[in-house]
Structure formats: C-alpha cells, structure tokens
Design brief:
The protein is 42% helix and 13% strand. By secondary structure, the protein is an alpha+beta fold. The chain has a three-stranded mixed beta sheet. The longest helix is centred in the middle third of the chain and has 27 residues.
C-alpha cells in the first residue's frame, strides 16, 4: 500500500485533497452532505486507490444515509477519476474504490467503554476508602518472641581453621 512507496503516498495525499474539494465544490448531490474523506491508500503500482470515507449522519438514520452516500460516490466515480487525472498529471489514473471507514464509529464505542470503566474505577475507589477488613487487620500468625540480634542467627559461628579437637578431614580418610 501507500506506506512503502513514497510516490504512492504523495499521490494518495493528492487524491484525497482533490476528491474532498470536488465533493464540496463541484458535486451538488444532497446524498454527499457531511461526507469526510478520511484516508486514501494507493497500491505501489498506482493502479488502484482505495478512498476511505465517513459520514456524520442523523441519529437512527445512519445506515440509510450511508447506503445512499455510497451510491452517490459510485455514480460520481468516473467524474472524480477524471478530476484526479487532470490534477495529478499521471499517465494512468488509478481506479477509485470507495470504502466506508468504520474506525471513527468504533473509536466512539471504545471511548464510551473507557468512560464506563473510569466510572467503575471511581466507585471502587470510593468503596475502598470506607472499607474495613472482615477479620483481623493482619491475618498472619506471629510468634511473640522478642527480635533476635543480627549476629544471633541460631547457628554457632565457627572457624574452619580453629582446632576444635575433631581433627581435619584428612584424619578421617579410609585407607
């Protein structure tokens, strides 16, 4: 797609500007009201340009408006391709494919989910602030022994070189 070829990326940006301005200024189709061209991706061989678009619709009528806008874009495809060819000055003008962009709608859904999660977190924080333990504060058993000295670890300190009367390991070899 356009990410690997710099020329394809430049042509995609040009196509996006031409189509967006043409929809706004030259195409006087009421079905194309509130259309936004979000992205254009051109194949590396410059044969196909996928034009991603979205539409701000009226509540409850989005599906019908989207379908009518798709029909209007498909009908205007030839005219828009001609305009792109004039502006781009290419030997071969890419075929235009219009694809409805689902990302903005999904982004709103994700934002709503995040808002609900923040509300739940705030409620949990409030409940946690006033919460008390069901049992003891420290449920673990502790011995009531006084703290031992750092040097008194329960083991006798010994020096291997000291003569303790037992002899060395050499004295206990089996012949």
């Amino acid at each position: 797609m356009a990410g690997t070829n710099p020329r394809a990326a430049r042509i995609a940006a040009l196509i996006q500007r031409v189509i967006a301005s043409s929809i706004e200024r030259e195409l006087h189709d009421k079905r194309l009201i509130n259309i936004t061209i979000t992205e254009v991706r051109v194949t590396n061989d410059l044969q196909i340009a996928k034009v991603y678009w979205t539409q701000y619709g009226h509540q409850g009528k989005e599906a019908g408006e989207r379908k009518r806008a798709q029909q209007a874009l498909d009908q205007a495809k030839g005219h828009l391709r001609t305009l792109v060819g004039r502006k781009a000055g290419l030997r071969l003008t890419p075929q235009l494919q219009f694809v409805f962009d689902e990302v903005p709608g999904e982004a709103h859904e994700i934002e709503d989910i995040l808002v609900m999660a923040r509300k739940r977190d705030e409620e949990l924080a409030k409940a946690r602030a006033n919460a008390q333990y069901a049992g003891d504060v420290d449920p673990y058993k502790h011995d009531d022994k006084p703290a031992q000295d750092a040097d008194d670890d329960g083991f006798d300190d010994f020096d291997d070189d000291a003569d303790d009367g037992f002899g060395d390991a050499e004295d206990f070899r089996i012949a």
